[in-house]
Structures are given as C-alpha cells and as structure tokens.
Amino acid sequence: MATTEGREKRNFGLISEKGEEVGTFSGAQPRDAALKVANRGFSNIVLREKGTKKLHYFVGKRELVAVPKNAPSWIQEAAKKNKGKIYKANVEKVGTAQLQYVKLERNPKELFKVPKKAAAEKAKPAAKKK
C-alpha cells in the first residue's frame, strides 16, 4: 500500500444532487476522499476539489467482510459488534468535469449527478464469454 508521507492532503467537498455541498473530506487523491464517503453509505459520489472548478464522479459501495487475521487489535475489537466483520468501502471513478462557475448554485444541475451511462455500465454484471 502506498504511503502518503510527503504528499499533501487536499480537501474535497461532497456535492448533493441539488448542488449543495454537504460535507468535506480530505485525502492525497480524490479516491481517498471517495472511499471515506462510500464508507458512510453513499453510492453515487460527486466530489468538488476545493480551490478548483474540478468535479470527480465515483460509484461506490460498502460491504461487510471478515476481519483479516493480521488486523490491529482496535479493528478486531470494533468488529466484535458485527460478529467479527467490518465494513470495507470500494469505489470506482467514472469521470471528471469542470464547473462553469465558482458558485455552485449558478451551475447546471446536471453537473451534480453521476453520469447515468457510466453508472449503469458499472452496475451491470459482466457478460459471460462463450
């Protein structure tokens, strides 16, 4: 796993479908912030990189998985509440976009939704090869 030593953390605002910022998450990469959002139960994730006009789109989920044997003791202790399982987040980036205006309310509302085509492709199960 890559360390974040020496890499500066950036802030990302979680944008609702109404175009409102509902939270701030930090990470060295947009994916780091998206994993934190997904672990809170969000599936369609739109993050705005603070200080820029860039939007990042992710599709995410979280699932209960068994605790690894080499997990730290505090994780194993927390997992006892869920019968030895913990939540693990998984996200996949589906695209980026640029805001037209700095103020969120001036931008078209379509920008604040994960692209349907990309979201539908990610949700479909893989086709079996013959």
From TrEMBL:
Its domain of life?
Archaea
GO terms (BP aspect): DNA protection
> Keywords, A to Z?
DNA-binding
Signal sequence segment: none
Q: Which GO terms describe its molecular function?
A: DNA binding
Chain's role: Protects DNA against thermal denaturation and modulates transcription.
The name on file for this protein is: Chromosomal protein MC1
| Organism in which the protein naturally occurs | Methanooceanicella nereidis
